[in-house]
Backbone:
């Protein structure tokens, strides 16, 4: 352990100088407040930087402060989140904004962690980036760069994250923001997964045990993954007088979002359908963290607007109703 801490101590200043020279110009790295960092970090959970950039700017234009977000309606927030996926984050962000507005900015790790949607990693990131607290943020990317630095063959998982957090705590520099983002940045643009690390550009190339042995690709050692559950769904795109049927999801995955009516492939349709063949048919797949949907979508023209659904034109849907990306393949039918 001491040998590893010594190595890590030597790695810190190299990372800081490298980060200051090479960091990407990302919108959340300007004019930071606790609130803007919170928006960025929740958006960046499970979503790539490239996908977040534009959404982040547009979101803050719409809701520049926690006060604006706290006052917004859930539908407005969902609409601004559209396309980012994992919508519970949007609901959490609104709830966290309400807490910030009511109670002010938290000052401790516990205070940050108690905000809705903030897990250990995000709490570490917010403490380091927005509050100057020496609280490490360790996710899969940080695990990857550290398993390579130490040539650590432990399997990925919570125990390894805890070990690395403890080690980082011992060497955390005063510039907590640059250190935290430097670790993220190295994982994002140099120490890449899947066999293509750009070791020639790495500030740790003279220290990294995996690189010195030419064994970057052996790390991190993967833990066994559980298979995803597969669900088969029929999706009904119903058109009536130029309007389309929508239904609000009231629980579980994608709660609070609007969807085309759908039901498990083994269940009957959610409303009576016209006789004959559908106007169009296509299949699509959407992969969530723990579930995979295999969907068969059909477009139908109905005579009566079935009253259990909300009926809206394509234009209204585009403007007001957030439909999750899972149904993207069927949105092409709207006109
Ligand atoms: N991923 C999570 N947080 C990030 C940040 N602040 N900058 C870049 N990538 C990130």
Residues:
């Amino acid at each position: 352990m001491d040998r590893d801490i010594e190595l890590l101590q030597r790695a810190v200043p190299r990372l800081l100088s490298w980060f200051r020279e090479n960091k990407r110009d990302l919108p959340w790295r300007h004019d930071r407040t606790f609130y803007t960092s919170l928006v960025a970090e929740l958006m960046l959970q499970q979503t790539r930087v490239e996908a977040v950039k534009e959404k982040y700017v547009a979101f803050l234009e719409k809701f520049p402060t926690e006060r604006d977000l706290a006052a917004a309606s859930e539908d407005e927030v969902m609409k601004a989140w559209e396309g980012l996926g994992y919508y519970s984050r949007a609901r959490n962000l609104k709830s966290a904004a309400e807490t910030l507005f009511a109670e002010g900015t938290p000052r401790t790790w516990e205070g940050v962690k108690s905000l809705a949607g903030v897990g250990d990693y995000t709490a570490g990131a917010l403490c380091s980036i927005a509050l100057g607290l020496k609280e490490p943020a360790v996710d899969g990317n940080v695990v990857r760069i550290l398993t390579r630095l130490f040539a650590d063959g432990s399997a990925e998982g919570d125990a390894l994250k805890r070990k690395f957090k403890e080690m980082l705590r011992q060497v955390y520099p005063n510039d907590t923001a640059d250190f935290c983002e430097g670790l993220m940045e190295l994982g994002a643009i140099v120490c890449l997964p899947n066999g293509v690390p750009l070791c020639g550009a790495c500030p740790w190339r003279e220290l990294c045990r995996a690189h010195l042995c030419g064994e970057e690709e052996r790390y991190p050692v993967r833990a066994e993954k559980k298979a995803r559950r597969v669900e088969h769904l029929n999706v009904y795109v119903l058109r009536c007088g130029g309007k389309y049927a929508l239904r609000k999801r009231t629980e579980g995955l994608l709660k609070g979002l609007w969807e085309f009516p759908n039901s498990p492939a083994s269940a009957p349709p959610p409303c009576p359908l016209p006789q004959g063949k559908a106007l169009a048919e296509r299949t699509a797949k959407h992969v969530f963290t723990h579930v995979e949907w295999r969907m068969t979508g059909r477009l139908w023209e109905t005579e009566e607007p079935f009253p259990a659904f909300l009926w809206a034109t394509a234009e209204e849907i585009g403007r007001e109703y957030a439909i999750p990306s899972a149904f993207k393949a069927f949105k092409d039918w709207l006109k």
